[in-house]
Amino acid sequence: MADQPKLFKVTIDNITVEVEAGTSILNAARMIGGDVAPPAMCYYSKLKGSGGKCRTCLVEVSAGSTADPRPMPKLVASCRTNVMDGMVVKNITSERVQDARKGVVELLLINHPLDCPICDQAGECHLQDLSYEHGAEGTRYEFPRRQFEKHNLGPYIQLHMTRCILCYRCVFTADQLTNKRVHGVLDRGDHAEIATYIEKALDNDFIGNVIDVCPVGALTDKTFRFKNRVWFLKPVDAHRNCPKCSGKVTLWHRGDEVFRVTGRKDQWGEVQDWICNDCRFEKKKTSDWVIDGPTKVSRHSVISANHYVDTVKPHEALPEVMGGRQPRLLMNIHSVSEVNKPTIDLSKIQGPAHSGDFKKGE
């Protein structure tokens, strides 16, 4: 009979849970769930070596263990600190933690541009959620923000270095999923940036996963660039028989068009299965996939707007009121506007849509 794993009791925000030895405070808090789990911008459970960069998961350890109940003098990164038997941790119940997290968010936003109105990550950006929950109303920073030369990473991935928070997730992803990593963090301090040093495209079969792991809008999908907002799209789970990956993805629909394909994510925003570039960038038709059903979306997310699962559609009384007559169409928008012509499919346009794309349909 196999030996039973050793369990430690840890108390986080007055809630006690038993976890296996070697579990980090962050993962123990995630077992409890809710607001007890600290936010994490750099830690990724599927990437070895991740964590310890962003400092957003800082917690207060008020008792180290049963054997040594002394508190730790400084706040610790919960993603890098393992639990001990009898440990007592404070997260949302600690004023020190809340004040420190507010300072960390202010630091992350110092050089971050106000790109939310045009950023493709808007609506699913972890930094947006973090700044809304823990950020200050204004900024005290009065100096010029960082500027970087633009780097071309190939036909599929768009880099906005001014939005990067240097979480290193994309570097670990390329290091552990691909045969050869060609990009990394260059320079040091406030000059540090994600780049390829020598202009080189990221063209590995699984390199598209850097888009999914990026917590901000620094790495985005060029094929989806400026085409739609995520809260206007309807995510559905789908799969296909793919020889390279699991083929389990999330399709983002608007009407009959598939605007983008991403990996399926869990409640912590982490990808469940890595997907290949063929599934992500080349299979943009509904007929390429077997639909499994609507994606479960957290109700606090803006993506959940008009996205209802397991609900009953209300009775439509308009046809009965009108006695079977169809409503009159008073104006057809396509007769007075050159934008969004019905002959043009935005999802099939290569790159961002421009006015010239609509004139081609004339």
From TrEMBL:
It is found in: Membrane. Residues 8-95 form the 2Fe-2S ferredoxin-type domain. Residues 96-135 form the 4Fe-4S His(Cys)3-ligated-type domain. The keyword Protein transport does not apply. Gene3D superfamilies: 3.10.20.740, 3.30.70.20. GO terms for cellular component: membrane. Its main location: membrane. SUPFAM superfamilies: 2Fe-2S ferredoxin-like, 4Fe-4S ferredoxins. Its cofactor is [2Fe-2S] cluster; [4Fe-4S] cluster. Belongs to the complex I 75 kDa subunit family. This is NADH dehydrogenase. It comes from Niastella vici.
